[in-house]
Here is the input.
Amino acid sequence: MRIVLGVGGGIAAYKAASLLRLFTEAGHEVTAVPTEAALAFVGKATWEALSGRSVRTDVFEAVETVNHVRLGHEAELVVVAPATADLLARAAGGHADDLLTNTLLVATCPVLMAPAMHTQMWHHPATQANIAILRERGVTVLDPAVGRLTGADTGPGRLPEPEEIFAAALALVARAAHDGATSSGGEVTAGDAAAGEQLAGRRLLVSAGGTREPIDPVRFLGNRSSGKQGAAIAAAALRAGASVTFVAAHLDVEPPAGAETVRVETALELRDAMHEHAPAADAIVMAAAVADFRPAQQHGSKIKKQDNAADPVITLVRNPDILAELVERRNAEGRGQLIVGFAAETGDAGAGVLEYAQAKLARKGCELLVVNEVGTDRVFGLDENSVTILARDGSEPEHAAGSKDDVADAVVRRVTRELASRAGGGTATSKVDQ
Here is the structure.
C-alpha cells in the first residue's frame, strides 16, 4: 500500500518516526511529508533513512514530477501525525501553502489525522470547529490521548501511541475497501479479506467502564470497574476492521484510537447513548459495569456530617436493565440482532458462578453470555482475565483466558463467527460487567 505520512510541527513528531517504521515493517511504501516546522523537531535525514525515500516539503521541489499533485493521486492512505492546531486549521480552510496541504487537497483516498497539541488549544472553539469541518468532509480525526504534555501540564492533547494510530489506519483502509466493493456491486467474503479485517464494513457499538450515580456534588455510588476489558474489545473490533462507537463511563484506560467515543457518567446517560446508537450498529458490545441502583434523591449540596444530627439515610431505586431493553427493542423491531451479554458473577451457598450465569442467559434473552468470576482480587483493574462463553442454543461452552487483549480477541472472533453465520448479517449486543 502507498502511504503518505504527513508530520506536523509539534514535539510529538518524534513518535511519527516509530509510526513510519511500523508501516514500512508491515510492507507498505511510505513517503514522509513533514512540514518545515516538523523538521525543527526531527530532521530530514531521519525521515529519509526510515522510509528509504526522498523527503520534500515545498511545492517547488521536484517540479518536473508535478509532486504536489502526484503524491495525493498515488496515495492509498494519508496519515497525518501529529496534526497540530495550525495544521488542522490550514486543512479545514483548504490552504495549499506547502507540499503537505497540497497533498491533502488532492488526495481521494482515506485520510486519518491524529491531533497533538496543548489542552487549551484542543478545547478552543476554533480547533473544535475545524475538526467538525474535517470530519464532515470524511476525514477521520482521532481524539488525542490524555496525559503528560510538554512541561508540567497534563490533559487531553497527547498524540496516541504509534501502535494505536497504526491499528486505526489499517482499520480505516479495511472499511473503505469494503464500502467500495459493496457500493460497486461486489461482495466481500472472508476469503477476500486479509487477516485482521474480518469485520470490515461492520459497525460495533461498545460500552465500557463503571457508571457513577451521584449522591451529592462530592459523593457517588460506583463500582470497581476499570473499563479495561471493554476498551480491549473495542480495540480488537477495530483491528478486525469494524467501525466502532465507544460509549465510555468511568475508565482507568484511554479509549482506543480510531473509535468514535461518547462519554457518559450515569446509568441513565449510558442507557440514552446505547439506545441512540443501537439502530445503526451491526454489533453492540455493552462492556459497561452498570450500577444496579441509584440514589432516589441527588442532593444539590454536600451532605454534612453533624454530631447533633441523625445519620443520613440514602434511599435507592433500581436502574433500568439496559441489556434487557436492547433485547426487547431488537425483538420488537425485528432487526435480527445477535445479542451477547457479559456477566460478572460471584458464587455463594445457593449456586455456583455458571449456574447463576445460565439463569441470567435465559432471563436476558440474549444468544451469548460471556461470564467471569469477579472479586476484590479478581478481574477488576487487573490485566488478566478468564471467561466462559455460554450460548443459548446449548452448544459447548467456550473458554478464553490470558490478558484482557487475548480475551477480547476471543470475544470478537466469536461475534465474527456468529455474524457470518447469519443470513444477511446481524447485530451483536454484549454486556461486560467489569
Observations:
- The first helix runs from residue 13 to 25.
- Residues 182-196 have pLDDT under 50 and may be disordered.
